[in-house]
Design brief:
Blueprint lengths: L1 H19 L7 H13 L8 H35 L12 H15 L10 H21 L6 H24 L4 H11 L8 H19 L2 H8 L2 H6 L4 H23 L5 H13 L3 H25 L8 H22 L2
Helix pairs in contact: 1-3, 1-13, 3-8, 3-9, 3-11, 3-12, 3-13, 4-5, 4-6, 4-7, 4-11, 5-6, 5-11, 8-11, 12-13
Length: 336
């Protein structure tokens, strides 16, 4: 409980700083005054109209979306590592992000014409993720069961195929601005955050977390091996199928609204295990909180480090995550 309390405080602080900092720095009191006024209608209006617009319409939706996406990626990362029994796995190992990227890039390049006209980028990204999910599902089912190696290899194969198609579509871009937009989205961005985009991923993460918490005992057993799980009366094939569906859907939701943000799902579960152990009833909610804090903080860095330019979030997470991945890989090899 102490760790959870500290993470909640850290998240509140991170959200406050995310809304306060930017090209127009705002006092914390002004930020909270605007938020409370918009939520309750109470409080004196002692701020400029542009400050209210910046807080309520620009920064707060973005900060909350960062928290939701970070929470989702943290939870999916923890579950994926049990699903494939590999502590170095992350949500994008199953190829879902490649499908979402293909859908998004297709709509950026061709979305103004033909049957694609009117389809939003998040919708296209989600559709692409579902196509990738379907392909991996078919591959994983061949031969019966859902063996971890089959899931991994199927995800890698589908991911490479869809990445190749994405590269081809990028080459069809007509102008430099279009290409820049594509690359920025593929590296992760929350710049398009709006209130209307927030509710679906928020509900999805909340429902997914509840569903996965109900299977925390089975996740603990699965992490110890299929034979151990089966000896405890768990239908391993059915459990792995359910986990695959939930993690794929959550990954698709996250990528659809934020682009492909790597390493969060890899880093967060390891940090939480160091703080609170490996039991999934604690690991899942703490991974959600830790992921939320991490991505909100990373987004602040991405927005403010090179003002007025913005760095894609995926670059910042890669700079943090790649050294950590190599460290974890080195420790894993040393134990063998």
């Amino acid at each position: 409980m102490r760790v959870a309390g500290l993470l909640v405080l850290a998240l509140a602080l991170a959200l406050t700083l995310a809304v306060s900092l930017g090209p127009l720095d705002l006092p914390v009191g002004t930020v909270w005054g605007i938020v409370l006024h918009k939520l309750t209608g109470l409080g004196a209006v002692g701020w400029a109209p542009n400050e209210e617009i910046v807080v309520w319409q620009v920064r707060l939706p973005r900060a909350l979306l960062a928290a939701v996406v970070g929470a989702g990626l943290g939870v999916v990362g923890a579950v994926t590592q049990a699903l494939v029994r590999n502590p170095l796995a992350d949500p994008y190992l199953l190829g879902i992000s490649s499908g979402a990227s293909l859908g998004a890039v297709t709509i950026i390049v061709y979305g103004g014409a033909g049957a694609l006209a009117g389809i939003g980028l998040p919708t296209a990204a989600f559709a692409g993720a579902l196509i990738a999910f379907g392909l991996v599902w078919v591959i994983a089912r061949r031969g019966g069961g859902y063996a971890p190696m089959r899931l991994v290899l199927g995800g890698v194969a589908v991911g490479q195929l869809l990445t190749g198609l994405t590269s081809y579509v990028v080459l069809q871009a007509d102008d430099e601005q279009q290409t820049k937009g594509i690359l920025f989205w593929m590296l992760g961005s929350l710049g398009g955050a709006e209130w209307r985009l927030l509710w679906l991923p928020a509900i999805g993460v909340a429902v997914g977390l509840i569903v996965l918490l109900a299977r925390s005992r089975a996740l603990n057993a699965l992490l110890m091996g299929d034979e151990t799980a089966a000896s405890l009366g768990i239908d391993v094939a059915r459990l792995r199928r359910e986990l695959f569906v939930v993690t794929s859907a959550l990954t698709a939701l996250m990528v659809a609204v934020s682009g492909a943000i790597g390493f969060v799902g890899l880093m967060v579960p390891h940090v939480v295990r160091l703080l609170a152990g490996t039991e999934y009833r604690r690991l899942l909610p703490l991974s959600a909180l830790t992921g939320a804090v991490l991505l909100v903080a990373v987004d602040v860095v991405a927005r403010t480090a090179l003002e007025p330019e913005e760095i894609p979030i995926g670059i910042v997470t890669a700079l943090i995550g790649a050294p950590l991945f190599l460290y974890l890989l080195d420790r894993r090899l040393e134990r063998r």
